[in-house]
Amino acid sequence: MTIMDRTRGNLSKKMASRIRKDIVEMIHAAGSGHPGGSLSAADILATLYFEKMMINPKEPEKRDRDRFVLSKGHAAPALYATLSRRGYFDPSVLLGLRKMGSILQGHPDMRKVPGVDFSTGSLGQGFSGAVGMALANQLDRSSGKVYVLLGDGELNEGIVWEAAMAAGHYGLSNLIAIVDHNGLQIDGTNEEVMDLHPLDAKWSSFGWHVLMVDGHDHEALLDAYQEAEKQDRPVVLIANTVKGKGVSYMENQVEWHGKAPSDAELVQALKELGGDPS
């Protein structure tokens, strides 16, 4: 085992913890936002940005860089925290979330936020944009890969499956989709709103290679990214996660899809996440 093997995932685990603290602080300061799905995605973002993706904050427009699209744009706090901790902008900007004059809107805007590769908000459209990026990279013979994160509730959108069909048709092996499969959406459980099962078979039928993974296990996520790179077709990681991960009173509670913590709830959340307010 090499030194790199022994330290694999250590940095992303540390950063995921920091990202979760940033998320609850940002949403508390804003008085609004989406903590549940932001917290469930923290490990996925941390492994991508701190262990996997070929990016350089000093060259954010580099041609052959890897690109990331947050198709579930309401989880913007998770992306903003990740980008700031990765060096795209100063973390002091984070507490301006959703405030007048801030670059950090409720959904990511590529015109305003350094490091954001695609503006998202309307569910499904970010995934379609990612398919277009991957197709462009294929045509340009670019080595850059496109990673896109979808919510499981987002899969109710028909545009997702139209784009998935196109990606399979064009054999976009440079496209890796990740489904944040936390089982809850704004109106309840996936089964209550629109049952997604069998999810793996659906993706397979559109020509995708499907991998199932624990979305909070950093080593498993890194293994899955590595496996994805070996495929000759688009890959989807169905990442099983916990909505509100890391904050006990938010975990698996649908009401925390879009709700800001109170002062007392912030203190408790930070205590559970291992830190005081910054």
UniProtKB/TrEMBL annotation:
Cofactor(s) listed: thiamine diphosphate
GO molecular function: metal ion binding; transferase activity
Pfam families found in the cross-reference section: Transketolase_N
InterPro entries documented for this protein: THDP-binding, Transketolase_CS, Transketolase_N
Keyword list, A-Z: Metal-binding, Thiamine pyrophosphate, Transferase
Keyword Transferase: yes
Signal peptide: none
Every Transketolase N-terminal domain range: 13-277
Family: Belongs to the transketolase family.
PANTHER family noted in UniProt: TRANSKETOLASE N-TERMINAL SECTION-RELATED
Name assigned to this protein: Transketolase
